[in-house]
Amino acid sequence: MGNSRSAVKVCTDHQGGINWLSLSPDGQRLLTGSEDGTARLWSTADSQCHGHFQGHESYITFCHLENEAAFTCSADHTIRKWDVVTGQCLAIYRGHTSIVNRILVAKDYLFSGSYDRTARCWSVDKEKQIQEFRGHRNCVLTLAHYSSRDVLEEEEEEEEEEEKVSRDLLVTGSTDCTVKVWWVSSGRCYQTLLGHTGAVLCLILDAPNRELFSGSTDYTIRTWNIVTGEQLKVFKEHQGSVICLELVNRHLYSGSADRTVKCWFVDTGERIQTYKAHKHSVSTLKYHAGILFTGSGDACARAFNSRSGVLQKIFRGHKFIINCIQIHNELLYTASHDGTLRIWDIRGICKRNKRRLKKERSVQGRSSQKGSLSRLFNNKVGCMVQQENGE
C-alpha cells in the first residue's frame, strides 16, 4: 500500500471551505462552490482557474456545471446561472425563503430543494418558477429526476391521463424521514415513500430497473419500486448515518458515519464487502475502473480494490474534511473544507488494477475451460455407466 503526501497541484484560490465540486459533461472544466460565497471554474487541461463567479450574498452550498453554463445555489436563498466563458451572471432565480441545499438540471428544467420545506422547478432560460412542490414537513436535502417513459409500460401510462402533458417526475428526500415523488407538470405528489425513521440524506435512482435507493440517519439504505411505492429491501448493517451512495453494475456502495463503506449486491441484498481504514465519517465516494475512491472527515482520500476491499493508497495533504471528489483522465480531484482543491495522479494505481483485472480474467478463463472439460468428461463417464447398466 502506498501513501501519497504530495498532490500534482494544490489550488488555494478560495478564501473559504469548498462545499461542492462539479465536472462538466465534456470533462473540460471543473466548478467549485465555496464558503467564501464565490464559485471558480477550472480547466482540466492545465488545472488553472479560468473563471471567478461573484454575486452571492452568502456561502454557496452546491454547484452544477454544464458545458456552457454553471449553476450555483446559496444560503442567500437564491440560485444563479453563469456564463462559463465571460463569468457573467445570466440569471437569478428568486423564490425560496431559506437556504437552498441542492440543485439539479434536467432537460430545460432547474430543480431546487431548500430548508423552507419546498422543492421548486424553474425554467432554465426564462428565469421563471414553473412549479412548487409543497408537502414535506421539514427541509428538502436531496433530489432526483426521471421520466415516466423510462419506467412505465404503455398501459400504465394511459392511467395517468392528467399528467400526459409532461411525464417528468421529481424525487425529494427530506429530514422529515420521507421520500416523495412528484409530477412536475402539476406539482401533485404521486408517491410518499414511508419507512425511514431518520433524515434522508442521499438518493440514487435506477430508472430502467424501476428502483430508487435512499440512505438515512437511521443507519439504513432502503430500496423502493418507484412505480408502486413498494419498499423492496432494507440494508441494515451500517452502525451510523448513511451519507453517500454510488450504484455501479448492480453493486451499491454506501459511505457512512460509522467510518466504513459497504458494497451490496442489489439483486439479493447481500453485503459482499466492507472497506475500512477511515478514521472519521465517509463523506463522499466514487467508483472508477475497479477502484473505489473515498473522501473522509479525517482529511484523507483513499483508494480501495473494489473487489477485494484491500486499501491500495492513502492521499494525504488536506487539513479538514473532503467534501467532494471527481475523476477525469486518471487524475483525482479532491475538494475540502480547508479551501483547497487538490489534484492527484492516479495513473499508477489504475495501471496496476488493470493488470490485476487482466490476470484475474485469464485465471477465470482457464478455470472455466478446465470446468468445461471436467463436465464434458463427467458427462461421457455418465453415459458410459448408463450404457453398461443397460439404461
Could you explain the architecture of this structure?
There is one protein chain. By secondary structure, this protein is mainly beta. It has a single domain, classed as YVTN repeat-like/Quinoprotein amine dehydrogenase (Methylamine Dehydrogenase, Chain H, 7 Propeller), CATH 2.130.10. Helices cover 12% and strands 48% of the residues. The chain has helices spanning 154-158, 347-388, and strands at 2-4, 9-11, 18-23, 29-34, 39-43, 49-53, 60-65, 69-74, 79-83, 89-93, 100-106, 109-114, 118-123, 128-134, 140-147, 168-174, 179-183, 189-193, 200-206, 211-216, 221-225, 231-235, 242-248, 251-256, 261-265, 270-275, 282-288, 291-296, 301-305, 311-315, 322-328, 331-336, 341-345. A 5-stranded mixed β-sheet has the order 1-30-29-28-27. Strands 2-33-32-31 form a 4-stranded antiparallel β-sheet, with no helix packed on it. Strands 3-4-5-6 form a 4-stranded antiparallel β-sheet, with no helix packed on it. The longest helix is centred in the last third of the chain and has 42 residues, at 347-388.
User: DSSP strand (E) fraction?
Assistant: over 45%
Structural class: mainly beta
Query: Based on the structure given, which CATH architecture is correct?
Result: 7 Propeller
**Can you identify the CATH superfamily?**
YVTN repeat-like/Quinoprotein amine dehydrogenase
Strands of the widest sheet, in order across it, are 1-30-29-28-27
Biggest sheet statistics: 5 strands, mixed
Q: How many E-type strands?
A: 33
Number of helices: 2
The CATH topology: Methylamine Dehydrogenase, Chain H
Helix content: 10-25%
Rounded mean pLDDT is: 89
Query: Termini separation (Å)?
Result: 60 Å
> What's the Cα radius of gyration?
24 Å
What general form does the structure show?
globular
> Low-confidence parts, pLDDT < 50 over ≥5 residues?
157-165, 370-391
In CATH, what is the class?
Answer: Mainly Beta
User: What is the number of domains?
Assistant: 1
Keywords: Repeat, WD repeat
Protein name: WDR86 protein
InterPro entries: Quino_amine_DH_bsu, WD40/YVTN_repeat-like_dom_sf, WD40_PAC1, WD40_repeat_CS, WD40_repeat_dom_sf, WD40_rpt, WDR86-like
Organism: Rhipidura dahli
